[in-house]
């Protein structure tokens, strides 16, 4: 049985932003460099920027820490590299650029510019470059790797900001579709923001066929993971973002991906086995049903009463 969290009348007092000092494991910025701020300088071309270090790698791209040569402000530059046959990835990147241009929220990573063909290499592969707000503390995934579990006060701060961000995005008909720890970034003030719109969609109020293969299976809601069984082909995807956040919250609480045992890799095959177990055993399986037990641990007795009452 799945516990219905949204029916619970929560009366939590929400904390102020998280103090980041304890979670910032990267080298602090030299004092001569200022961080990105809303009134940052106009970036006319990629030659305005100097690469400093590599911040990380993702699917098809690398993220660099860069410095604006004249203003000394710091940004993250995400470089997506395309080969000649990369039409689908290019379309995806173009969608991401479109979405980033639309959004303007303190809960969503700011994009200061999108450039084509920036740091292209000698093999003729070309790049799409996103100049992003620099988030000094890195991703929630990086933070969890160092700290394993987070205190409840911190988790509620994370949940609050991501929910505010989702509220904003959903209000603009944008479904993120890949909420997970590595797409939630923290700055030096301890503010979490939603990043990476690579598989996001503007649904424009209508229900779209759900292409469930996009995103990260481990954090996908049941109707996205298995649309046939959960009637998910025409879901708008908004609830799916909230499901993913729920999984992230539980992961922060238990210190590992919550639907499987510690040490297991949450790849598609493993998560699929959990889903099958759950189907066969009703509410006794290890997978999604495990979420309800963890919810009880995190959210307390009120949920248990609700569950017992049906
Ligand atoms: N704006 C940013 N500021 C600071 N660090 C960043 C920023 N954006 C990304 N990073 C770092 O770079 C890493 C790679 O980011 P990227 O968005 O390319 O991939 P990912 O989300 O980790 O994986 P994938 O996109 O493959 O699912 C992140 O995990 C994070 O540590």
From TrEMBL:
Enzyme Commission designation: 2.7.12.2
Reactions performed catalytically: L-tyrosyl-[protein] + ATP = O-phospho-L-tyrosyl-[protein] + ADP + H(+); L-seryl-[protein] + ATP = O-phospho-L-seryl-[protein] + ADP + H(+); L-threonyl-[protein] + ATP = O-phospho-L-threonyl-[protein] + ADP + H(+)
Record-annotated Protein kinase domain positions: 49-310
Superkingdom, natural source: Eukaryota
Swiss-Prot/TrEMBL GO biological process terms: response to other organism
One GO MF term: protein serine/threonine kinase activity
Keywords per UniProt: ATP-binding, Kinase, Nucleotide-binding, Serine/threonine-protein kinase, Transferase
Binding residues for ATP: 78
EC main group: transferase
Family of this protein: Belongs to the protein kinase superfamily. STE Ser/Thr protein kinase family. MAP kinase kinase subfamily.
Record's protein name: mitogen-activated protein kinase kinase
Organism: Nyssa sinensis
